[in-house]
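Now for today's protein:

——
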Amino acid sequence: MTASADRPHDWPKVRLHVVTGKGGTGKSTVAAALALALATSGRNVLLCEVEGRQGIARMFDVDPLPYDERRIAKGAPDQDGRAGQVHALHIDPESALLEYLSMYYKLGRAGKALDRFGVIDFATTIAPGVRDVLLTGKVYEAVQRPRGGRHKDQITYDAVVLDAPPTGRICQFLGVNSELAGLAKVGPIKTQADKVMELLRSSRTAVHLVTILEEMPVQETSDGIAELRAADLPVGGVVVNLVRPQALSPSALAQVRDDTVDPTAVTSELTRARVDVDADLVRSLVAEARDHAVRRHLEDEQRELVAAERVPTYELPRLASGIDQGALVELAQLLRHQGMA
């Protein structure tokens, strides 16, 4: 996908960006970078996590997040230098259930009494699906707040980014309210479940998948896209993460693959660069180039499989310095230039 500083946003109508991916592909990093990328031109963005790992706090080097929305960063500035705000929320099901009981059943202190008796832990353990209902319900509440200031002492957001469970569980996680609506034929529970599913299946939501150019993650991404479409959930884009630098030109790769590299030419180039060179060094470099060529060939095959899914695709490089807030800003700029935000 061609990078352009003024490329229009690929997802202008989307308010909920769900980010999923196979473990080890860097989905949490991509979710954080996307939140920074979306927070431009004075826009407020909420970055949510639901897996209990406090990954947001580690990436942004802040204290562990409570069940409360906290400002953690400024977004990536736009061409006019305007940046928005990134807030973060660590959603845990126990706190979400207390809030749910307070909002819809007006239990007040009685809700906290239930917590002391262990009823909440019992409910979310004996019926694991309840956890996902509460987690998605809180995300729904944040998305539904009217934009333009504050709503009942709460910040309103132009976009919400959800660092969601891995690809293998994403349809179950997002579809749990559909199952609940089927069980509860009438009443407030069914009404709430139907509203959540209406949001998740609408054009206001996009489920983005993160992969790397290896066989198993790409296959899981392909399977995930098929499952999302079968469940009538909106597929967003694919972010190819941790892309290695392309150290050799196509012509050099062809020479390596065809085993036509001239050792004399390699020696000459190294000598011109004032490198102490001997035959062992040249053989080692040619062997490394051959390994690189093989890896590039395999990566190119996987890239073609990703392209065959016919969804917007974005690429992020492997950063040698690791992931900190500066690296997240760099990745956010790349996502914006490619049109994801």
